[in-house]
Specification:
The complex is a heterodimer of chains A (about 280) and B (about 575). Chain A starts with 6 loop residues before the first helix and ends in a 6-residue tail after the last strand. In chain A, strands 5, 6, 7, 8, 9, 10 and 11 form a 7-stranded mixed β-sheet that branches. Chain A has about 280 residues and is an alpha/beta fold. In chain A, α8 packs antiparallel against α9 (about 235-255). Chain A is about 40% helix and about 25% strand. The longest helix of chain A has 20 residues, at about 210-230. By secondary structure, chain B is of the alpha/beta class. Chain B folds into 3 domains: about 50-260, Tandem AAA-ATPase domain (Rossmann fold, 3-Layer(aba) Sandwich); about 275-280 and about 365-570, Rossmann fold; about 285-360. Helices cover about 50% and strands about 15% of the residues of chain B. Chain B has helices at about 15-20, 30-40, 65-75, 90-105, 120-130, 140-145, 155, 160-165, 185-195, 210-220, 230-235, 245-255, 285-305, 310-320, 325-340, 350-360, 365-375, 385-400, 415-425, 455-465, 485-500, 510-515, 520-530, 535-570, and strands at about 5, 80, 110-115, 135, 150, 170-175, 195-205, 240, 245, 260, 275-280, 380-385, 405, 430, 445-450, 475-485. In chain B, the strands form 3 sheets. In chain B, strands 4-5-3-6-7-2-10 form a 7-stranded parallel β-sheet, sandwiched between helices. In chain B, strands 11-16-15-12-14-13 form a 6-stranded parallel β-sheet, with helices on both faces. Chain B is globular and about 95 Å long. The two termini of chain B are about 40 Å apart. Classes of the chains: A alpha/beta (about 280), B alpha/beta (about 575). The interface between A and B is large, with 88 and 70 residues. Chain B: It comes from Croceifilum oryzae. Chain B: GO terms for molecular function: ATP binding; helicase activity; hydrolase activity. Chain B: Keywords: ATP-binding, Helicase, Hydrolase, Nucleotide-binding. Chain B: This is SNF2 family DNA or RNA helicase.
Chain lengths: ~280, ~575
Amino acid sequence: MNDSMDQQQVRSFTERYLQYQQCQVIESAPSHIYTHLSIEADKDLLNRPMYWMYVERMGLQPNPSHQCFIFDAENPPADLKGEYVFFGCPRFTQLLDSAQKHGKFVRVYQDTGVFGMVSRQTKPYSPWLVINFFVSFVCDRKRDEIWSLGIDLQTGAIQEQFDDQIKNNKWLSRIPAKRYTEEANMSISEAVGELEYYLQDRLQNGELAWAEEAEERLQQELAQLDLYFPDDMSLSEEQLKSKQDRRRELVWQYHPRVETRLINAGLFYRDKVFRYQ
Amino acid sequence: MFSLPIHYDRSWLSQMEQNIEQDTGWSNWERFQLALEAAQAQVVPAFDSILSLQQIYGFEPLRHQIDVTRQVIHEMRGRAILADEVGLGKTIEAGLILKEYIIRGLVKKALILVPSSLVLQWTRELNQKFQIPAVAQKKAWMWDKYDIIVASMDTAKRDPHREFVLNSEYDLLIVDEAHKLKNRRTKNWQFINEVKKKFCLLLTATPVQNEMEELFNLVTLLKPGQLGRESQFNSEFVASKRKAKNEEQLRDEISRVLIRNRRRDGDLNLTKRIVHTIPINLTPEERDLYEGVTQFVRSRFQNGAGDLKSMLSLLVLQKEVCSSRDAVFHTLFKLFKRGEAGNESISPEVAHLVELLRKVKTSSKVEEAVNIIQQIPDKFIVFTEYRATQEMLIRALQQQGISAVPYRGGFNRNKKDWMMELFQKRAQVMVATEAGGEGINLQFCSHIINFDMPWNPMRVEQRIGRVHRLGQKKDVNIYNFSTSGTIEEQIIWLLHEKIQLFESVIGELETILEKLESEESLEQSLMKIALTSEDPHQIRNRLHSLSDQFHQKKDEVVRTKQEQDERFYGSTTS
């Protein structure tokens, strides 16, 4: 996660993206992939809103583009013109953004395999809300963490690193036969509130040295500004404005804070685990 | 205890609730996982790493450029004066810093203010080297439409643009050629002071040109109060207009906001320049033409005396005759059309020259060029000042089976790019009439032929600088074609032997020339010497004294610079 993706990872990510976005892969080699984009992918990757507006307004047959993505700059395909794709180039950034846009919300059911075939009984699922938060620690510098939190909608129990718990299971979009979901005891927005509160508490009790240092730098800079523009009546209107502007800039630059955004969220129906009381 | 503010965004919640209610709009497990992986790839895991280095492609920044990036972001907190000497890559440093901030999500909106002649070059570099989607500002509506804009300072500070700029908030403001901000009473300074900016980079190779006050003004623009109030600064640090006191403390203060790499610092790894003077012996016919043109030029000059315009075209003629017959013909023809319009017949003088011209069937210089190029199976760039020579040369080279492409200032961007690509991939030789301008970076080529020699040292240095620059891995061979017994030989003697223009970069060349040329340009001085000297001996004497003046100015400039360097930036290498 620390180092940026290498070319092999870039390629495999691109391949999966194309597959999930229903793009037709015409030619696939270690060095490149030649594809006929789906309409959605074309819209997200190729920056041609005018074309799509025109096609939709006029009711024309849409014609999404063919693209050749090259992953090995030393060995491009001989007969295809393409674009070198690497981590940090605008196209791949668009690809990452598009992937996030199309994986926002799920409602899925744990696949427990052959159970339904052999049992006569119906079996319950317990409902969980999962939120993946992108958490940024911001001052004049910045770093990020991903917090994957899950909350049991019946008991309110919260678990961290939920992505690790669910990634090795199989998840289905439709509820299998002979399964039913148990009722939640809280609303989605209540659950979101619980998770936000939990995260806030964890961060507030986490490592804060960076924020304290930033706050200290801010205070030093503000003090320096006060020395430069002593707050007496002698400041001209112009100087006063300069001082206020500069003060705003300093807060903007240094003020330590946490900014979060949603990566994605889902309702996960997990196989109900019966514990010994 | 410190209370950490946390912002949550809940704009997504209604969408999810709607999905639940209507049972539509769901993604699936695979896409959900891919989205999470995409986000993981975008995580910036540490405060103090430099990620931009892994996300550029096609060039490798030098160590000092990486150091500057790190220092500006992590120590100077994004407000700094980048004051490297010319040629060390301030643009690269600024690009790396911008890229790093963009990757970290700390900069979304950026404004880059540069001299208007550099707007396109900056835009291209940011796009090509750094994949930063910068656009060149052309119309007023563009200000609000694009996040990363390159514009000229002169445009930006004028209406209607001024309002757009002052009403925006820029996460990063970059000002190139920032020595134009040394005076607090100017519109430039006040404008930059008013722009709302979070981070700010000021780029200049000469943060102090004359007075200490300039430095104060520059630093105050960046961080008011860093050097105290003006009165404090004056009493603490200024002994007289140009003299500092408490130098150590001053240096310390300055080093918090200013970074200056000098050529002797660090490992720039510039390769060597190997200079060859190639004497060219004219054929009798060429010699006759040379003498004829020289006679013509002198007599015209003595008769016409003083008219600068005709003096210039005479000078061109004098230089061209050292380049090629074709170039002379071209100018003679123009001169004839202008001067002799209305006259039925050609003046006997001109007719005589045309006669001499006809007799010249071969070019000694071309033969030598072919000879050298055939001996060395490597890329060559051949510079000439004249288009007629350029065309003739390309024809002559092709006749010998040597592939050659042209390059000149008049080509549009696409054609320039295409010619560069052809040269790099297919042709052995590029014949260029222009050395300055954007985009000609020829590090893959290490042989330069100066087919004829500009009389302006800056133009000579620009030529060499296209090839001998950061990124050049081989020693650079420079072949100066010098026709024996002509003014060209004398000029090359001056530039090579006396000024030592070729062997190494004279970092202060521009400043020295500015001082030397306070009355008239060096080119004009040379022209006068060429036209008014009695004989070659006198030419040599006068060139000698010109070179003495050059060295005197050079010493002055170097001394001032050393003093300033020691005073403001410390003399120790970093």
